[in-house]
Write a structure and sequence with these properties.
InterPro entries: K/Na/Ca-exchanger, NaCa_Exmemb, NCX_ion-bd_dom_sf. The chain has 13 helices and no strands. The chain has about 325 residues and is an all-alpha fold. It has a single domain, classed as NCX, central ion-binding region (A middle domain of Talin 1, Up-down Bundle).
């Protein structure tokens, strides 16, 4: 058991390390494509930071045994954390850094954020609703629908990003020895591959250890994945949003979260619909409902000028902590 816990912690470190390497390369890809902050945040950075969480269910499905439960837990856990705790962190960051920023309200790309949240609420409502449907053909049709939704969303966002134009260069790329010249295509590709390999290795280790720990303590693997997977792979990467808010890059910070919400409720959910039974227990229903409630709350600052007040922050924290307590209790 102690060894399994140590290896689980190691899997967190490998996942996060791979995500940092991958995200840095993706930011440079956005710079080379001359995309604006909105497109980089909502598509490139969001997909990059969602990669560790998305690889966990894929590895879990391939591994068999309790893989289906771990996959469903990891898939639902990401929107749950993003729609509650991650949003609260943005509001807290705006308050903490208000003196440095000389304002409390976040400077949002309102149309982009409203679009992201509307797509998320619609797509994730479909995903949660299909948790009550036992028909595999219906689930397959739902998976295809969600994939088409994300393809349309990506096309629209990137087209808008090209119209905005690019911003300043991101931090120096790790695989660029000069740290001064723009990295070559080969350096960019090498860093992307290295990041993916690290994340795959971390995901494989995570799934294996969750299975061992679940058997040892007699807890559903779904519950462990639902709570631990997003904390391990999503939350550390959302620290990027905190840093971006500190630097005044609010559009990039919020796009990173809302774009990841759209990605997580379409691509990973599509995988879950197609390759698992997608049958929900009480913990899964609880997480799904909390994610939808948190996403709906996020429309409030999006529609009222970026003001993330203490009452909203308290509601997001209450949703997250209350849902976690309920999940652990019913399990």
């Amino acid at each position: 058991m102690p060894l399994a816990i140590a290896l689980l912690v190691l899997s967190f470190a490998v996942l996060v390390g791979g995500a940092f390497v991958f995200t840095n390369a993706v930011e440079w890809a956005g710079s080379k494509l001359n995309l604006g902050h909105g497109a980089v945040g909502s598509v490139l950075a969001a997909v990059a930071t969602a990669m560790p969480e998305s690889l966990i269910p894929i590895i879990a499905i391939v591994s068999g045994e309790q893989g289906g439960e771990i996959a469903v837990g990891a898939i639902l856990g990401a929107p749950f954390l993003l729609g509650t705790l991650a949003m609260a962190l943005c509001g807290i960051s705006a308050l903490v850094f208000r003196a440095r920023r000389e304002r409390v309200a976040l400077d949002l790309d309102r149309p982009a954020m409203v679009t992201d949240l509307a797509v998320f609420l619609g797509a994730f409502a479909v995903a949660v609703g299909l948790g009550a449907v036992g028909s595999r053909p219906v689930r397959i049709a739902g998976a295809v629908l969600l994939l088409l939704v994300y393809a349309g969303y990506t096309w629209r966002t990137l087209r808008r990003g090209r119209e905005e134009g690019g911003d300043e260069q991101p931090p120096a790329m790790y695989f660029d020895p000069s740290k001064q010249d723009p990295p070559s295509g080969l350096q960019l590709a090498a860093q992307l591959v290295a990041g993916v390999l690290l994340m795959v290795g971390g995901a494989e280790l995570f799934v294996t250890q969750v299975e061992h720990i679940a058997k040892a303590v007699g807890v559903d693997a779904l519950v462990l994945a639902l709570v631990l997977a997003p904390l391990a792979s999503e939350l550390p990467e959302k620290i990027n949003s905190v840093l971006w808010i500190r630097r005044g890059k609010d559009t990039l910070a919020l796009g990173n979260i809302t774009g990841a919400m759209v990605f997580q409720c379409t691509i990973p959910v599509g995988v879950g619909l197609a390759f698992t039974s997608w049958s929900f227990t009480a913990p899964a229903w609880t997480a799904g409902a909390a994610a939808l409630a948190g996403g709906a709350l996020a429309l409030v600052p999006a529609l009222r000028g970026g003001r993330f007040g203490p009452p909203l922050i308290a509601l997001w924290l209450a949703l997250y902590l209350g849902a976690v307590a309920a999940i652990l209790t019913v399990s």
